[in-house]
Write a structure and sequence with these properties.
CATH architecture: Roll
Low-confidence stretches: none
Helix content: 10-25%
CATH topology: SH3 type barrels
Largest sheet: 6 strands, antiparallel
Structural class: mainly beta
Number of domains: 1
Order of helices and strands: EEEEEEHH
Radius of gyration: 12 Å
Distance between the termini: 21 Å
Number of helices: 2
Shape: globular
């Protein structure tokens, strides 16, 4: 499930960004592969705010353009996962 924070949110790092919950399947220094229950997306670390939870899930805040990015093609995502 995803929702957008208002532009005047108290936390400036999350203001105007989409909040998405899921699991990190793969990670590198520059990107992560997030599975949000619908599909998998490669996300550049420089464009997101990532918070990993104790239960193995993650919460990611991302800008609109990244939220609209299509899901990874299954073959590509499967190779890394």
């Amino acid at each position: 499930m995803a929702f957008r924070h208002p532009h005047d949110a108290l936390d400036a790092t999350k203001a105007g960004k989409w909040e998405v919950n899921g699991r990190i399947i793969w990670r590198s220094d520059k990107s992560v592969l997030l599975h949000d229950g619908i599909g998998k997306k490669f996300l550049p670390r420089k464009s997101i705010v990532l918070e990993e939870n104790a239960d193995g899930t993650a919460t990611v805040w991302m800008p609109e353009w990244l939220h609209r990015k299509p899901y990874a093609k299954e073959e590509k995502a499967r190779d890394v996962a």
